[in-house]
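Input.
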Amino acid sequence: MIRFEKAMEIFAWPFFRLIRIAHDIHRQNFNEQAVQISEILSVKTGGCSEDCAYCAQSIRNGTKMPKHPMLNLETVVSAAREARGRGASRFCMSASGRTPTSKEEFNAICNMVKEVKALGLETCATLGMINGEQAAQLKKSGLDYYNHNVDTSPDFYEKIVSTRIIDDRIKTIETVQDAGINVCCGGIVGMGETNEDRVKMLVLLANLKTPPKCVPLNKLVKIPGTRVDDSHPIDDFDFVRLIALARILMPRSYVKIAAGRNTFSDGIQALCMFAGANALFSSEKLLTVDNVRAGADKSLFERLGVTVELPNA
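Output.
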């Protein structure tokens, strides 16, 4: 069991000591010159009944994002094939909403998982809260990862979401893990929380019965109309510290730089990778927000001598 006080002590270590120790732990568990690349596609967009303060797809925020129905299978498979061609080894399918709304919708997603898996890609889905029967069906369909972020610390959670509690999140995470599916679970920083909240979030993840196989850290992308569009952004070096802390607390998990990466300089991204980040969301768009420009990752990786984990043959 990891204590919050100890985690805060590590987070506050002198910067170079912190990232050096995190790097040494990273080298013991992973290839220090390799990254895993994922791409994500919104297969159903908008119209969500949840009130997550950061989300453009919530009907309770003022973003007025149009609602788009479920994409057809051919469109999703084509997007996955293109992602594979760009070097992605994992393809994530995201459907907005509190939970799958119908049996037909859920079966359609299972078919997407089967077809994307057949391309030799790892599969990931984020569908909100699901039950044990649904988790078992996704596993049977070939789902490798389920993304379900805790978003923030237990203390700060109610300031961000009121339509569910953080224990609902943890219940879904445990349900998915019980079905034998890897969990991709992290959170968002820069929503007005403190560094203490950020550390508490990582401690929560590290102390789960099984820590997440992948830990995505998202820097808030401010969207006009959301309730956190005027929050103060996280300091870049504090973000690097969080990457390093995640690596120290969860040494065998992939640590992913997710949303907001396009706001970081190449130098900050390199520091994140040195500190233990070894997974990235690539592509020019992440669901409803912009990501890195075309060709930026290729250039960065070449300059750093970083290799990309290849999709399955």
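The CA atoms of residues 117 and 131 lie 22 Å apart.
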